[in-house]
Amino acid sequence: MKDKFDFLRKIFSSENPDLLLKAYKSLSNEGLEVYIEVSPGDFLIFREELISDSNELYVPAADWAFSKEILTKQGLSEYITEYVVPESIQAEIDKTEEILLKKRKTVYIETLVVFVLFVIYIIFTMVTH
Fold this sequence. Notes:
Strand order of the largest sheet: 1-4
Radius of gyration: 25 Å
Order of helices and strands: EHEEEHH
Strand content: 15-25%
Number of helices: 3
Structural class: alpha+beta
Mean pLDDT: 86
Number of strands: 4
Shape: elongated
Distance between the termini: 72 Å
Low-confidence stretches: none
Largest sheet: 2 strands, antiparallel
């Protein structure tokens, strides 16, 4: 069930329900989905009647930077949390980066071999003519 919500990132944290509501309204007025965590790994789309269930707001990772801009403009920057990638996602990112680095190394070696063969060909044609 937890993997279902891996796309969410914490954007806002405050014990003050008025600030939480202000942040929610600022984000939702821009058309963003805002979530709260009701139990570990279980999230619901935020509604005003759920305000007492959590003191943190979550947004989709793709909207995090835009959400940060919105909250900063509203004067709530001190309550914005750091962008943290969940460990389950980070492991996948690390695997992908490793694969890409191996492919890049292979391309560099292939390029070097082609360049060396080209230089040998040029030298051979200069010597034989």
